[in-house]
């Protein structure tokens, strides 16, 4: 599943595909351009900050075709649009906000929503009611999970999320180059494709350093400058702890640590250096101090950590792949709910930089397969609840592509038991992929971000991409089947099944 923040949406998924959710359609429902203070996006979500939350027309927003779900409350709002669509909408919406800011626009007002989770009764168990329950669960969880550690992990994730499009693009090009080489097709083109795919990865430390400084209050280019030391070819003339350094040693972990140190040094200088000297002294001290510490400490330490991560991942799958896959696949959805999955992003990136792929992501992706299987079981069991079935139908394409939030937060999590049975499906799918890795059929992903069917173009394995695709595809089928069976048999109590399947004339008439 995509590495997005683990917040549950206020509203269930609505709409189909990507139609209708353009900037022009979203803008009035968000209170107008004057009501927006910032617009950003990740792989699947449009992130906006609003001045007046009551001006956001949530009911109409969630009913807009192309909107798969709404996440967040208060002034911070995330609209799940899916990959591709969000990349088109975000820049257009940002231009509207910039124009409104220049013109001095003011936000409009709207009547705030009054429906709460407490108004849900057994007689009205519809998609909207489940969405309200999901919102109540989210509010409770947000109060429990607002810890400094999880805030730090969120900021770490923000460093790597902007890099995902390049990782995906370069990963697919690298796979194409490998395919041409293995088939001995177009021998003159394969080296060119390899260069296209490898250029970004050879300098990924610089991008990590840039984003780290930006996220932690430093000057981005200074963070990138310090991180660039790690990939500079001349570091092989420097010795640390009695050993010659190697260009790239420490990788993204070293770059993250170096840029984080640079941001702290820079802020320290800004507070103490006179303004007349700041433009000369602060950048110099930042690069010098952070650079020397990086060369004589951070590169060596981060290199040791990165090597240990790679060896542990290999050992884990070689010696306990089935058990490890069962645990990782089964626990990933709860990790997402707690926000702890974001700690895995630097690990994935380190494995990709070090080994060419991350062997953990295909296993973790089985959690989404379990969720899809659970949703299919609910669709079959709730034959009389057209509202919930419509929600499942609209969210299923996104779920198959690895965007699990609409199904999780709009259906399974508010119902309780189906969320647990979805985890069972993920556990069995993960155990299958882990078992085959233990037997020698290791499957890895050359990029992070995509999941579900969207991960197929990024797969590689020790026995070639075709075998890797087959192993991963069979794992998805196991996850679908286990999630379906577990949910069909244990996902709903008799009382819940009776209440959810009660006829809803208002719903059935549509």
From TrEMBL:
Primary localisation category: membrane
Any one annotated GO CC term: plasma membrane
Subcellular localization(s) per the UniProt record: Cell membrane
KW Cytoplasm (keyword) present: no
GO biological process, one term: phosphoenolpyruvate-dependent sugar phosphotransferase system
Keywords recorded for this protein, A-Z: Cell membrane, Kinase, Membrane, Phosphotransferase system, Sugar transport, Transferase, Transmembrane, Transmembrane helix, Transport
Membrane topology label: Multi-pass membrane protein
Matches recorded under Pfam families: PTS_EIIB, PTS_EIIC
Superkingdom, natural source: Bacteria
Gene3D superfamilies (alphabetical): Glucose permease domain IIB
UniProt region (Disordered), positions on chain: 1-22
Species whose genome carries this gene: Streptomyces telluris
Protein name: PTS transporter subunit EIIC
InterPro entries: Glu_permease_IIB, PTrfase_EIIB_Cys, PTS_EIIC, PTS_EIIC_1, PTS_IIB_1, PTS_Sugar-Specific_Components
